[in-house]
Each structure stands twice: as C-alpha cells, then as structure tokens.
Amino acid sequence: TGDMGTVHRFSLVCLLLALWVCQSTGYFELQLISMENRKGQLLNGDCCDVDRSAAEGDCGSDECDTYFRVCLKEYQTEVSTSGACTYGSETTKVIGGNTFQFKGSQKGSQNRNNDAGKIVIPFQFAWLREYTVIVEAWDRDNGTHSNDELLIERSIYRGMSNPGEEKQIVEYKSLTASIVYTIRVRCDEHYYGNKCNKVCRPRDDYFGHWVCDQMGNRDCMEGWTGPDCKTAICKQGCSPLYGRCNVPGECKCNYGWQGPKCDECLPYPGCVHGTCAEPWHCTCEKNWGGLLCDKDLNYCGTNRPCKNGGTCMNTEPDEYNCACPDGYSGKNCEIAEHACVSNPCANGGTCHEVPSGFECHCPSGWSGPTCAKDTDECASSPCAQGGTCIDMENAFECLCPPQWTGKTCQIDVNECAGKPCLNAYSCKNLIGGYHCACFRGWVGQNCDINMNSCHGQCQNGGTCKEVTRGYQCVCQPGFVGRHCEVQRNRCSSSPCKNSGRCHALLDGFMCECLQGFAGTTCEVQNDPCSPNPCHNKAQCHSLMGDFYCSCPEDYEGKTCAELKDHCKTNRCQVIDSCTVAVATNDTQWRLWHISSNVCGPHGRCISLPAGNFSCSCEPGFTGTYCHENINDCASTPCKNGGTCIDGINSFQCFCPGGWEGSLCDVGECVALSPQNETTRGPKYKAFHFQQSKDTWRRSVANSSESQCDSSTCSNGGTCYDHGDSFLCSCPSGWGGSTCNTAKNSSCDSRPCHNGGTCVGGGEAFTCICKDGWEGPTCGHVCMHCQSSPCAEGATCVDEINGYRCVCPPGHAGPRCLDFFGLGKSCRHAGLQFPHGSHWDEECNSCHCVSGNVRCSKVRCGRRPCILPKALPPLDAGALSCPGGHECVEHQFLTCFSPPCHQWGVCSTPDTPTPLHTQCEPNSGYLDDSCAHITLIFKKDKVPQGTTVENICSELRYLPVTRTLAEERTLLILCDLSYSTSDAVEVAMVITTHAHTHTLDCGQIQKAANAITTALSKRHNSTAMQAVVEVKVEMLVECPPVGYLVPVLCVVFSVLWIFCIVVCVWWTRKRKKEHARAARDILVNNQLEPLRSNALKDNRDKDIQYECKKLMGPDRTADGAESELEDGPLEEQQQCGDDEERSIGTGDKCPPQRCSAVGSKDKGGLGKDRFICCY
User: Average pLDDT, stretch 1071-1079?
Assistant: First the structure.
C-alpha cells in the first residue's frame, strides 16, 4: 500500500510539472454570433416565463432571459455533459432575449457589440490541440421552473485547433433553437508555438538585444549578434584585432592605433619621413635617415642644387658638394667665369658668353641648348600623293608611290612608257595611273585575262570549270560572285575593334560594340553618360570607359536604382516597425525619420500597437511584405482549354485553335464565299476547321496552298479543295464538316464540355474527359483534395489536372513533406522573401536559406520580345518584357526563318558585363570547359519569324540548364553554323571561380549530355520540335586516375593493425600464465591450515608456524611485508577469487598481512614475534 501511494504521488507530481512548469499560457476564445429561439421555449418544451408548454400556444411577449455557460474539457469520443470541465468553464450574465445577434445587423433584430458575446477561458498548461466544448443556453430563473429545467439548448462540438488568429465557425441548429459562434485558441503575449509553451520576451538592455519572430525564435536586432544578441557589430571594415565597439556601427581603436577602421598604427612622436608597421616605430622612407627620419641622405637627388652642368655628390646627411665644369664656380656652380672655354656648342654651333653662362647659335638643321638636337624636317609633311618622308641630317627624302616621282612626289610618272598593256589597242597615261584599251575577249588592268579561259579567273580558292559559253567558278564556302570575289562571312577577318563582337550578314557584317564604343567597327569611344544611365534624377559623371552616378540621399547602386538602407552605414534608432531615425546634420533635431522599407517597393507600412505592423499592398500584390504577385489565373478565367498567363493585377489568355476573345469564349470562323457568284438567293457563311495530327489549323482566306491532306476528312470521307477552304464528301452514316459526326447521333448537341470528346451514336453517348475534369459531361473539376494529400497542416487548393499545397512556414515540397526549418528571411532586389521560398529570376531559379539567397548561375543575356508596333491591339501583352523593362529594337538579331522584323530585345538598366571567352560558335576551340553543339533543323517545320536568339534563349530557360549552373557559371552562345546548312551552332562554356582552380574534365561532358537529353524530349516550343539531328563536339579524354597508391596504403594499414592485435593478444596471454603459476604456489602453501580440524588454540600455533615458514628464519618483518605485497601474490588479496572457492574455503578470505613485534627476554637477547592476520 505504501508503494502504491508513492507511485500515485509521483504521478501527480509529473502531471503538475507537465501542466505548470512548462510555463505555457493562453486562452480559449468563443465569440457568439447569433442566438435564435423564435418560440421562446426551453429544451423540455415549456415556455421560459409562462407556466405552460409551448405546444399549447404562444408563450407571450415576455422573452427568455438568456445567458450562456461554456464548458471546455478534453477530447471525448462519447461526450459526457456531466463531470468537471477539465480545461475550464465560464458563465455569462444575461445577454439577450429569444433572438439576438452580435455581428452585423438584421431588420428587426437587436444589435450588440462583439465584446458582449465574447467568452474567454484561460489556460495555464501546454495546449493539447484536441478538445470538447459544450455551449449551453440557459434561462435566468424567475420562479416558474426549477433550475434543472431552465436549459434552452445545448451545443456539443469536438475539434482540433492550433493557436492562431483564424476563427472556426460552428453552426448548431435544432427544433428548439439555433446557435452560431466562432472559436479559436490564442497564446498570451510572449508565448508561441503549437502548444503555447515557447516563451520569448523581446528586450533591448544590457542582457540582450532581440525581438521575437512569429514562431517565438529570437531574432537579433539590427547591429547585434551572438547567441544572446549581446555582441555589437562594429563598423564595416573595423579591424577585428585593433578595433572594438560597445554599440553597433562604432569603431574604437586600441592604444597605439588610429584611423576610421583602426588599421593604422601610431608612429613614434616626431617621426617626419617614416612609417610604422607596429605602434611607436619610425621606419624611414627611402633616402631618409635619423631617429626621426628627418635627415636627407640623398640631398642631391631630392633638391638638385648644382647648376650649369655641375656634378652633385652627397657627403653627409643634408650635406653635398658640387663639382663644377670649367668656367663655373661657387657652392652650386652658379658663378660663370669663362663658359665658352670648354666649347660646349656641338655640330658647328657658335658659343657666346652671357651673364648666366653661355648661349649657342646653331647652324641650320640643329637646335637645342648645345645644338645637339637634330631638327625633324619631316614634321611639315613635305611629301605629297601619299609619299613616305625619311628624316636625314639637315635634309629629308621622299619615297613616292609608283605613279609619282620628284623630290616631293608631285610629278606624274608616264606608266605607258613601260608598255604594261598586253592585248590592247593602245595605252593612255592618266594622272596617277593609266588605261588600256583591250582587244575583244580580253579584260583586266593590263588586258591579260581571256574572258573565255579559266586561267586566273576564280579568286579566293575557287575552282574554275569550262562551260559552253565560257567558264564558271565554284566558290569555297563563304565566298560568292562570278569570280568568288565577294566574301560572304566578313567576320573571319575580325574587323570589329575594342573587343566588339562581329555578326555575319548576307551582304556584309555588323559589329556589336561594348559599352562606351560606337562606329561601324567599334572604333569610336562615345560618352557613357549619353543617354543618362542614372535613375531617380541622379547626375552622371564620365570616367575612362565607364561612368559614375551621384545618387540622391535615398538611393544607391551603380545606377541609383536601389533604395538605400541607411541603417547599414549609420546607427539607426527604431521608432516603430515602419519608421527608423537616422543621425544627420541636416535637421534641427539632428535626426531624420525614414521608412524601414519592410514592405518593399509594392507596399506601404502601417504601424500597429505593441510594435506590430501591416502592409497595405498595391493592386496585384499580396503577402506579409507585399512581395507576392497575386495569381490572377487562380480562378481559371480562360475558357475552352485556353492557357492563362498571370500578370500584375491582370491576366492574358492564349487560346487554342478554334477559339478567340479575351477569355477564349468566342469561336473563330472563316467566311467562305459561294462557289458561283451568280447563284440566286442569300449569301451564306460556312464554318470549317481542319484538324491535323498535333494541332488545329484554321482555314486562312486567300491562301494559295491546298486545304486537303490525308487526315482532313475522317471516317473515309473525300476531301475537295475549294480555294480558301475545303469540303468533305462523307460516306453513308456520317456527317459534319469533317465527317466525324454520326448521323442522328446524340453527340450532335455537343454535350461534352471543357474539351471532352463525345463518343456514341443513337440515343447514348460517352464523354472522354481531359485531364483534370470528370463527370458525365466533363463539367466538374476533379476534387484531388478530398484525399487530403497535403501534410503538416498545409492548405490544399484544387486545380485543373492536379492540386497545389500551400505549405506552412518551415515546410516545402509538392506535399509539404520537406522540412527545412525556420530561418531568417532574405532581402533580394529590393524585396523580402521568407525562408525556404523559391522564385525565378529571368532564366535562373533562386532559393532563400536562412537569410542567404542562392541562385543558379546561367548567363541569361538579353531576352527576345515582340516589338509593340508589330503586335495587334488585342495581343499587346504577348511575349512582353518583365516589369520595369520595355521591348526595344536591336540590329544584331540573326534571322533564322524570315521574316524577323517584329523581334526586339528587352531593355536593361545596366549593360551586362561581357564574358570574354575563346569558346565561341564556329571557332573550333575545345578544352575541358568548352563544348560545341550543332542543332540541325528541318527548315520547313521551323516557325516563320524565328531568330537564332530565340533558339538560344529557349536553351537558357531549360530547367536542366539551371541544374547545371548551381555551382558554376554557365554561358551559352549561339550563331548560324558556317559549315552546315539549316543549322545553329551552340557554344557552351562552364567557367571556374576564384576558389576553384581546376575543373573536372567530365563536367562539360555531363552538361552536354544533359542538354542533348533534354532536347530529345517533347517540348512546347515548335522550334525545338523541328530539330532533326544534334551533333556534339567536346574533349573525350580525361587524365587517368591512379589506384595503385591508395590500394597499397590500404594493404599496409591492414597489416599494421593485424600486428598490433597479435602483440596485444600475446602480451595478455603471458600475463595470465604468470598469474596462474603464482596462484598455484600460494594454494599449496595454504592447503594445510585451510583443512586443519584442530582446536582453536592449536590453530593459532599453526598460523604462527605458517608465518615463520613463509617468512623464513632470516627475513625481517619489513622484508616479509614487502615480499608479500610484491609480485603475483598481490593478486591473492582480492576476495572472492574463483580458484580459492574451488579449494573449499567457503568464506571470503580477508587479506593477510604479517608484522613483527620486537621484544627482549630476561637474558637480554632479542627475539622477534610474528603475528599473521587473516
């Protein structure tokens, strides 16, 4: 009984600890909405305030005095209305009569505020999610009934709720009354979690600086870090060794250090021309010395004091001597004595003495102080007609072109004197040339080419062939013309300068210049500030090949396009969630109140009590921070299988064949004129659509192509081409425009909706529904959410042909099964993204992980788009650019399937930095990071208006491309193939980063294989479906991997471990053998005293005898004790030895120890007495 009581008390203590010690707190809130008791009766059928039954008639005008009693208890499968309310209970005062409501208003009803109908039951334990709530409506006793008979109605509800703001509506209706109310569970302030047992109190004091997020996790305030948010983040760049800070943003220097970042040491006081690497040092600069580095060791080189050609020599610090030339003297050779004695003038110059020294009068052709500089006679460009001038000593010479002669190339040469014309009537001399009048059949400058001969006719490697009326040149690839004189690919000579990129055209080439250059060959360097690239009215300043934007106070970035975060560089004081104060000198209070930008560029922050806030979003955006674009396609507005494209506060429908209109709800039709215009009667319109293998094709007016093919008429019908349309002659039993409808068929009325196919005849039919639709007529969306596929409390949203799970924070994946935890949100491109979210950024995909944004590294390039002037008014948004960009014309687009005049590219605020690489299309260059892929198309299947840039953009936007660029940058370049017709050559480059010095040679092979595998699958793009062959060029040999060294290392390691194991085993075996031998000796010595049956008196003598026998006659007591304690006998002092028990000692043997007691007898002789203790 005592043990059972202890167990019960221990269980009670555990229960109290589970409910109270966990510091959980919250409250269960029930909000009454309405109460309706039209007859004013009780649950038992009696009237509230009249002593009669409601069935007997009207209960009168006196209404019930209604009050409520709420009981909250644990979840019960079979609910018991009696018993204790485990979680708590609450009773209200009289709050109404027979019928009343608390939310909204109705005609003739009594309005109340929400607080009057709110019932709150607090709890102080960990919330268990499941519960049972009993709501009872009672009539206040007026003396007509007993208390047990005053129950008006009772509502019992069992549910499961997590703490939160969302309310759950409960409607209860019965014959007596109906009650409508909402319930929710909320945690008290500073308590969080699904059980309200996680405590987090924000603080900003000595013990920490943090706030709490929505999950109750500590989030350090801006400028603080560490496990307790007590460590201040110093000013950016502050030296971690020599700087410190007590508050965020400051940088206090340690003793001996200075500078804004505390990275400059203080030199020795008085140090003039010296520096320091450590405090209080003075390391002299070059040519300076002394304790304070104030002594000039190279006075001559620093000051150059010697004049008039004197030679300066350093003698001591700050001292020098000048060695003066003849004719000069003085400290600095400044005194002229006889300056011309040394003949300083060269090349025949005449010397004249002057007060400051001498002057040289130079002859013609020479100049300079001493006539040593030769005059450049070619400076005046004396040679005419393109002649080359050669400067000579006091003269010049002109090298003239062949047509000119004379000293300055101004005399025309008579070329006819050399008889250059071979097959000509005459030669005529011209100014700067000559002309030959050739015989019939001869051409050329010198009449040396026979028009009917192949000799020398074909240029640039062309092959000449004799034909009936002359010759014909078969040109090499890239050259055209009668004599192969026109180069088709003008880019082979690299005409573009300043790293410009050349684009080959049919009639020449065009250069795409880098930013800052212009001209036909990029030879002109233009002004980078024209037009002004800076945003938000910032001023542009030109630099060498670049520009600089002077940003206003609120903006930053290369082009001042990003909102400035002032709290990164200044200390900010948080006013509330929407406003921060920044220190400034521009206002009277030296504070500047700015927005915290928490709602991003598409929202306006609204401050709420208790430090909370809400974001008022612009139209088209939603989410906590207004960072999510509202999906306007969620309501499936496009009809008849149209594809919905979501925009910003708008959407656009792309209709399938046969449908048009803004919602794809208008059938397309083609008017077909009567065959005979003279036919009497009214004109008619025929509606025909032709179904091909993969898509619908509408009959187009004024088409010269045949409208019939093998699949136009179904079920054996015969197709007849009628100009712009067709007619089908159907066999017996079939009808319709394409003979696909059985006569008198139930499918005539088109009973199948949403793209369903009708199959049947007579009075019965069957609808074959498209994916995502069901029902007899395909009129119902498949309810995929009925099976609750979403896990972790996620919200399931039904969609056509599937469902979508809206995951709670911390979860992701198609079914929210992937738990990635809770972390800091990310700020990227002016927007704030929650932890774990994914989004697309052009051709890349990005992922937010604990405050860090990870994006794939595909170089997207400029995206092709349809120019606005090329679009009809209804399609103005088709293939448009993302927000903030516009579609502009671009002259470097290469047309693959004309016409391509409607294409442009999306504008960019900053010109992307070009990536220089040798791996370009048609270059033939290959290495371990470069591969070439040639896509060969069936040209008649390529849609008209397709450019090479369209094909390249589709490759960059493939999902597999993002996967390949998760770790390394992927560059894809495209151009027309020079070697293969109807083909596009793709160059794919994987670049390495600074921390990665080498690239796996198999990486580019995997990338090329992944791209080709993706191309082999079915695509939505018609252009990619036209690919008939793919060629891949890449390096296939990888350096072999050596396995000999690892194998040898493993073998030697195994042998070494085996040797160690054998040595340990052998050592332990030897120790056991020695111990066993020692135990055998000790057992033999103790055998007799253990088996002795003598009396107790004799046993003492035996023990003394045994001790003497063990000790020996000549051993001292100390020696004996030492002997007994040493060696293997020490192991025998352990009690309970197994071998001693086998001998039969029975009891435990205490350790024995012998001691010697010295005494003297009467004769004075010493005698030792031994005592053995067991």
Answer: 84
